[in-house]
Design a protein that fits this description.
Length: 188
């Protein structure tokens, strides 16, 4: 096994996730993960498309008019070379972006926090800055962006590792038992 990865139940974790301090600092990054320049938004699964279709009327209430119009005209997702992704608006913001002042936030998550829906957001967004690749099983890696430098700086102050920062999303995707086994393996 590659010494830069830890394997837990056929999930390979890049050790940067275990060793790197990270705590989002929205006041500095302004929600850049939701507005990075790209033709597409976030990776999404077929099950998530089905779920979002069901909750879409509640989520639309939280979105700016331009985003609602884009979704109504073209839908909220796209398939490109076999990959499913949310759409982006103007090659910039995910169609689910809403604004809290000058900070981009997720309209799905806002609806969730206000108890209008029971789905927090696509797991790829929830896991960020962790990205998942498929290579004989899931491979978790730290996705590095210059826009996340404030999160690394703040993380050095909080001493929270990426694995702990992403605990809820990792438990959502792989289960509490998997997370517990992973933490025990890390502490050895």
């Amino acid at each position: 096994m590659n010494p830069e990865f830890l394997e837990i139940e056929k999930v390979f974790i890049n050790k940067e996730i275990i060793d790197t301090n990270f705590t989002c600092d929205l006041s500095k990054c302004k929600g850049a993960c939701c507005t990075m320049e790209s033709e597409f938004g976030a990776p999404i699964t077929e099950d998530e498309i089905e779920t979002i279709n069901k909750i879409l009327p509640a989520v639309l209430e939280y979105l700016p008019k331009e985003h609602r119009q884009e979704i109504e005209k073209k839908g909220f997702w796209i398939e490109k070379q076999g990959d499913l992704m949310t759409r982006s608006l103007n090659n910039r913001a995910c169609v689910f972006v809403t604004w809290d002042g000058d900070i981009a936030k997720c309209g799905i998550e806002k609806a969730y926090r206000e108890k209008k829906v029971d789905f927090i957001k696509p797991v790829s967004c929830h896991l960020f800055p962790i990205r998942v690749s498929k290579f004989g099983g899931d491979v978790l890696r730290f996705e590095k962006y210059s826009e996340c430098m404030p999160a690394l700086e703040k993380g050095n102050g909080t001493q929270i590792k990426i694995i702990d920062f992403c605990r809820d999303s990792l438990e959502r995707e792989y289960g509490k038992e998997w997370f517990s086994i992973t933490k025990q393996s890390v502490q050895k």
